[in-house]
Design brief:
By secondary structure, the protein is of the alpha+beta class. It is built from 12 helices and 18 strands. The longest helix has 37 residues, at 479-515.
Length: 584
């Protein structure tokens, strides 16, 4: 409303100045011979109007163009004055923990020696967090919307191995206790060291805006996971699930009590003739039998390194097989190749979404980092299996059954989809392990004064986008810019032209009167005033034709000149000519 009012006042002012300049220019022009059609054209412009004469198309088009341009002034001013919704970019930079270098490897090695890989205070975080991260990642691929929350921060699908670098998105503001940082992290405030880069105009205040979104380039971690069935000819894995026996039986137990327990010794060859064995306990009946419909068993073994000695120690392997309810998961091997990444993290609407922009494989100095990630995967594979079911198995079962109408244990089961789910699950676990690691080493109290040493820091850069309203510079080729400025430019140019013409003619008239010793003109003549025109015609000897078509055409070509006789002004006929000259 206010913008429209101001735009209307400015457009009326501009139009008024234009008509005044036209009147003044035409007044000076009438002291010289001018045809009546040109005079009527000038009078129309001075009154903010136009003429319609098909015999004089040039003058008609000219007056219509100027008339339309004057009407567009309000729209032009409104466009220029109306504040627009736009995003104000502000450059940011900062630092975060660098887990990719040899300095962090040495620090992580010290932590392993002092406190072990999995600490008691971090048990629940790793157990629940890794599982939820895997579930979110596995479900999203098949159209199940997932949002993963960790330490108060909300991630879209998965963490991509990052830690929040924006204060508003950093999550929990609790202070970790003395044993709640680094590998013992159990939640709490994560130190954020990101600030505004001073611009060319540091005194300009950054508005609070309606909302603020961020796009940051920071360090992440993900993994390429490839799962496939173990062929019977692939004897190098030596996957053995046959060693199990009943360790407890109680036939007299009630329905709600445990009637029996079976101990499983699951073993696999992890390369170089290294045999890995995990123990699992499942619930059975008193005869040692398991319900194939209600119970599920999904044992997994994590080999913390490559199966082939020719490979460098930058990957690890997970072997798994489903039984009973999870029988649709055949004996499988998943090769996990962790990758150090650079991601573009978008912080918007309270959620963090990340996209990998570049990646590099692990190097030999990342052995400790690989050991930690493989350790988290091992921890998850063991703890996900309960007495009657597995979290991983239930996840795969639920997702698959929700996306197909085929029976879950059908022999024609789509193995490809099952392996895609398994790959996404383990990738989610790997990415979470990196986020947990970064959070622990960036938690409040992890370093003296919460300052990360330079040799452990990684650069963070990005942009904050403040959504606000205001005025921005229009692109020169913008249609909106042309619409807004073209009418203003035309009217301003014509106004200045008429004013310049009036100044030049007034100076000439002044010099002419000095030369002939004439006095100043005493009476003012307003060409837009109809009474003044009638008085000038009546005072002179202007003889015109009648109102017939031919008479009007003849009259339009008559040239007249304004003369002054004291206070009297009158039109004098100069001659009758057909119009052949341009309007000046």
């Amino acid at each position: 409303m206010i913008v429209t009012l101001i735009a209307t006042v400015l457009s009326v002012t501009a139009a008024t100045l234009f008509t005044l300049s036209v009147k003044e220019a035409l007044r000076h022009r009438m002291w010289k011979p001018i045809s009546l059609i040109h005079l009527s054209t000038g009078v129309a412009l001075a009154q903010g109007s136009h003429i319609l004469k098909h015999q004089y198309m040039g003058l008609t088009i000219l007056t219509l163009f100027i008339f339309g341009t004057l009407r567009l002034l309000t729209a032009g001013w409104t466009t220029l004055l109306t504040p627009n919704y736009f995003m104000w970019p502000v450059q940011l930079n900062g630092t975060e923990i660098d887990i990719s270098g040899s300095a962090f490897a040495a620090l992580l090695r010290e932590e392993f020696i002092a406190n072990g890989l999995i600490q008691d205070s971090a048990f629940e975080i790793l157990d629940i967090g890794a599982m939820l991260s895997g579930v979110a990642a596995a479900g999203y691929t098949f159209g199940i919307p997932r949002t993963f929350n960790f330490n108060g921060a909300k991630y879209n699908v998965s963490t991509q191995g990052i830690v929040p670098t924006i204060e508003d998105y950093s999550g929990s503001d609790g202070v970790p206790d003395a044993n709640g940082t680094r590998l013992g992290f159990s939640g709490g405030n994560v130190t954020v060291n990101t600030g505004v880069v001073p611009g060319p105009h540091p005194s300009v205040h950054i508005p609070q805006g309606f909302s603020r979104n961020y796009s940051m380039s920071q360090q992440g971690l993900t993994a390429n996971v490839s799962c496939r069935a173990i062929d019977s000819s692939q004897t190098q894995y030596l996957w053995d699930t046959s060693n199990s026996y009943l360790i407890y039986a109680n036939a007299a137990a009630s329905n709600n009590s445990i009637t029996g327990l079976r101990l499983w010794n699951i073993s696999a060859n992890c390369g170089t003739n290294t045999l890995a064995t995990y123990e699992y306990v499942t619930m059975v009946d008193a005869n040692g039998n398991t319900s194939s419909s209600g119970s599920g068993f999904l044992p997994s073994i994590v080999c913390p390194g490559p199966m082939n000695m020719n490979q460098t120690y930058t990957t690890f392997t997970i072997l798994t097989q489903g039984f009973y309810k999870y029988g649709f998961i055949k004996a499988s091997v998943c090769e996990v190749v962790p990758l150090l990444t650079t991601v573009r993290a978008d912080y918007s609407n309270g959620e963090i979404s990340s996209e990998v922009t570049s990646s590099t494989p692990f190097r030999p100095e990342n052995v400790e980092l690989l050991s930690f990630i493989a350790g988290v995967a091992k921890f998850q594979s063991i703890n996900s299996q309960g007495l009657t079911s597995s979290t991983i198995g239930d996840t795969l079962y639920t997702i698959y059954s929700s996306t197909t109408t085929a029976p879950i244990n059908n022999i024609s089961l789509d193995d490809t989809q099952v392996y895609l789910e398994l790959e996404d699950y383990w990738r989610g676990v790997v990415e979470f392990s990196a986020t947990f690691l970064r959070s622990g080493f960036m938690a409040t109290g992890s370093f003296p004064n919460n300052v990360i040493p330079n040799n452990l820091s990684s650069q963070v850069t990005g942009t904050m986008f403040v959504s606000t309203i205001g005025w921005t510079r229009w692109p020169k080729n913008s249609p909106t810019y042309l619409l807004a400025t073209l009418p203003l430019t035309i009217v301003t140019t014509l106004t200045l032209f008429c004013a310049l013409y009036s100044i030049i003619e007034a100076w000439k008239e002044h010099q002419e009167r000095i030369r002939h010793r004439m006095g100043h003109r005493r009476a003012h003549f307003d060409v837009s005033n109809t009474l003044h025109l009638i008085m000038a015609c009546a005072a002179g000897t202007l003889a015109l034709k009648d109102f017939s078509r031919k008479g009007i055409l003849n009259n339009e070509s008559v040239k007249v000149q304004l003369n002054e006789d004291g206070d009297k002004k009158k039109f004098m006929t100069v001659g009758q000519l057909y119009l052949k000259e341009e309007f000046v």
